[in-house]
Amino acid sequence: MPQEETVDVLGYLRRLARFAIPGAVVALLVTVPLLLLTMNQEGTTTYKQKAHVLVIPNDVTTEAAATQQAQLVPMMLRSYVALEDVPVFVDEVAKRSNGRWTPEQVTERLSIYWGGGSALLAFQAEGENLAETNDLANLGAEVFVDRADEMVPTAGTALWKPSLKVVETSQEQAEPTVAPTSSPVFAVGVGLLAGLLTMLALEAWSHLRSGRRKNVRA
Predict the structure, then answer these.
(1) Is residue 195 within 8 Å of 29, Cβ to Cβ?
(2) What is the pTM of this model?
(3) pLDDT at 217 over 80
(4) Angle, CA of 40, 46 and 49, to the nearest 5°
(5) HEC profile for 54-99?
(6) How far apart are the C-alpha atoms of 82 and 132, rounded to whole Å?
(7) Residue whose C-alpha is closest to residue 184's, from 42, 45, 32, 27
(8) Do residues 40 and 128 make contact, with C-beta atoms less than 8 angstroms apart?
(9) Are 175 and 11 in contact (CB under 8 A)?
């Protein structure tokens, strides 16, 4: 029965330690630039502003109509939320901004939310400038009130026919959200990994060359 070959872990670690200096050099060459980049970065300040629109269903006179309307309300509010990506809405907001935002920027920065349990829609804008973010939220709500019936034709049914009203405009008061910079731990970790991989590669290359020399002598 052939004897099982044992793995000399300590021997391998000693051989690996011969390349500690080049491994440390590589680790420093990788870590230092990453640390400098992290130190020079500044967090991105982002503001979030909201304007609110109340969707008021029309009056109904019968219990059956009221029941049907109650079932229809959530569906219609979800349809309104979907307008945030509809070109007619996005293009109109961009047009009324007089060049401040392109349609692509409107799509990225303006969102419509419905929390459920009410008929209140929130128009939330995000941006790095407080005044512009405030204006975008209000402009989104304004365009919605003016054009929603055109963009969601089913809203014009006799049962629905809601009234749209801006009940709260966005104000220029908000706490900025500052995105954190990259962590120094990440830079150190990448540097150590690069150094370790260098040591492993050098040891493997040394072992390969040693094996070739033995074959040549044989």
Answers:
(1) no
(2) 0.60
(3) no
(4) 170
(5) EEECCCCCCHHHHHHHHHHHHHHHHHHHHHHHCHHHHHHHHHHCCC
(6) 23
(7) 32
(8) no
(9) no
